[in-house]
Design brief:
alpha+beta; two-stranded antiparallel sheet
Length: 135
C-alpha cells in the first residue's frame, strides 16, 4: 500500500491522507485525488514528476545528471541553489513523515485487515497532529 500525505509546511500539521495500491505512480495519485488551489505553492519530492502540468505552482528538485550536464556553470549554480531551497522546505515535511513512521504502520509490513488500514493510519496522523500541537 502507498500513502499520500499532504502537510501544511508552516504549522507542520497533516491536512489530508490518501491510500492507494503500491503500484500506483505518485503523480497519478495526486492527479486523481488532490485538487489544490492554483495559488498555493506546493513542494514535491522527485517521485511527483509531471505534476507541473496539473498544478503549475509546484516545485520539484531537479536531479537528473543528464539535464544538469547540458547546463553552463552559472546555470548549474542557480539550479543547485534552487534545489537547496526546495530541500530545506522539504526537510520539515520529511520530519513529519518520520514521526508517522515511528508507529511502524508504514515502515513495516501491515499484517491485519486492509479494510481498517486507512482508519488506523488516519488515527496515527491525528496523534502526530495532537503531539505537534502540544509540544
Amino acid at each position: 500500500m502507498k500513502f499520500q500525505v499532504i502537510i501544511d509546511r508552516k504549522t507542520e500539521t497533516i491536512i489530508s491522507t490518501e491510500m492507494f495500491n503500491g503500484k500506483a505512480h505518485d503523480g497519478t495519485i495526486f492527479k486523481k485525488t488532490t485538487h489544490l488551489n492554483p495559488d498555493i505553492q506546493a513542494y514535491f519530492d522527485s517521485g511527483y514528476r509531471g505534476v507541473q502540468k496539473v498544478h503549475a505552482n509546484s516545485l520539484i528538485p531537479i536531479r537528473h545528471k543528464e539535464d544538469i550536464a547540458k547546463l553552463s556553470d552559472e546555470q548549474k549554480a542557480v539550479r543547485k541553489a534552487e534545489n537547496k531551497a526546495i530541500s530545506s522546505v522539504r526537510m520539515k515535511i520529511e520530519h513529519v513523515i518520520g514521526r508517522i513512521k515511528i508507529f511502524k504502520i508504514v515502515s513495516e509490513r501491515y499484517r491485519n485487515r486492509l479494510k481498517r488500514l486507512l482508519l488506523r493510519f488516519n488515527l496515527i496522523c491525528g496523534i502526530v497532529n495532537y503531539e505537534k500541537a502540544f509540544s
